[in-house]
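RECORD TYPE: protein structure
NAME: MobA/VirD2-like nuclease domain-containing protein
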Amino acid sequence: MPVVKIKQIKVTLKKSIEYITRANKTRDGALVKYSDGEFEGAKKVTEDMMYDLMNGVHSYKEGDVLAHHIIQSFKPGEEITAEEVHALGVQFIKEFTNCEHRYILATHVDKEHIHNHIIVCAMNQKTGHKMRVQRDTLQKLRDLSDKLCRIAGVHVITNAQPNHAFSMADIYLQGDSTNIKQRVRGLVTAAALEADSFSSLRDELLQRGVRMNVRGAHITYTLIDSGFKIRDSKLGVSYDPVGLATRIGRSSVYPISFNKRMILSDNGETLTVKLPQTHGKKCIRIAKNQTLSDGTTYRAFLSEDQPVMIFTRENRYAAHMNLDELREFFAPDYAKITRHESSSERFINATPGVSDAQKRYYSAVRRRSENLSKTVEAYETISSYGSVEKTLDALKEEIDSKKDALYASIVALKETHEQRGNANEVKELIGQIDALESEISESENMYMRVHDLAEKNSKTDKNQDKQTRNRAQNR
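PREDICTED:
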């Protein structure tokens, strides 16, 4: 049952080619085919395709379609070899393009279902005109794929809906494509099945038109075509960083957070991180593809099934720990966050007036004015999120994320201070902590204002309902 879909590439041409031609997916490149002969790397293919695009009848302009990405998937258990799938893909794309477009084809065998990724340059080498994907293009691709598969003796779908190309997300959605949350769930689920790291998950999501943005301990997914955004908490617990790490690693994980100042070295694949409370004498190594970062704070997702190896700064084995022991180092008891005084609490005897009565009056006016200003701000915040419930959820997530970053910065500051680190680093960390404490305080204050406002409105509504019932009874 071959499944076909097509997408446009407008920006990430080289990155897309690098992804589909990865050695671990294509038997060390044995299942990669370039239309112009030997495959010499993504850079060369990108340059060749850009040459065609720049020298067409209408030269390439920023924002134009660079290439089309076609995916042809076969169901698990299909009695067909990877070599046969590869040959079918080559025949398929040659016939579709009439051998007039450059293309790169890669057959992936790293998952249960064998599938072809084909990236076709949008520019026709012979005519100098661009390929146009029209309403019936997807069905034409599907019909051609079915025809070639029937000839090869491969099972095809006989009741496919016209003008519809099935994607992996469509399969997982089980027909519920009208629900946008379900659509995002399906896309993330399909991407996670293909991914083996957070880096490859980002690539898989981009291939499916989804951008993944990390902010603290949470992820926001954005549908690139529509701009629709949704937080992980709205999709379910298996779509947050811990849930995704579990999906990718196929085992339970535990997250630890640390500030970037705790990183001793980064070789591109592995982070060497100082072990807190050891005065910088010991460290752990974490695969970089097991981490997510928002720039300052890193979150690593460690498997609960495997002990963590501890090394000295001299790169010698020191010990190993289970996750329960490691938690004691990365999650010490934190002092309660001191809530910052509001600007109104920092006024120093600034109340106008001469007599005590006047001062009391003006003080009451100022308080009412400040309370009104805070109420307006709370209403504006609720309006930006759409409802009280959404506002409280968003503020809670924001507070949790900022606390996560705060705690990581506190640990990093302690380590830097104990090791008599660079004064600028200490100053920067103190600045981060002060800023985060202030932001947390503001978010917590806003949370309480929205919560109190909701309760007040609820009581008002109940009183109005009671008065209405009393009036009705008195009649």
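COMMENT: Residues 170 and 186 are 7 Å apart (CA to CA).
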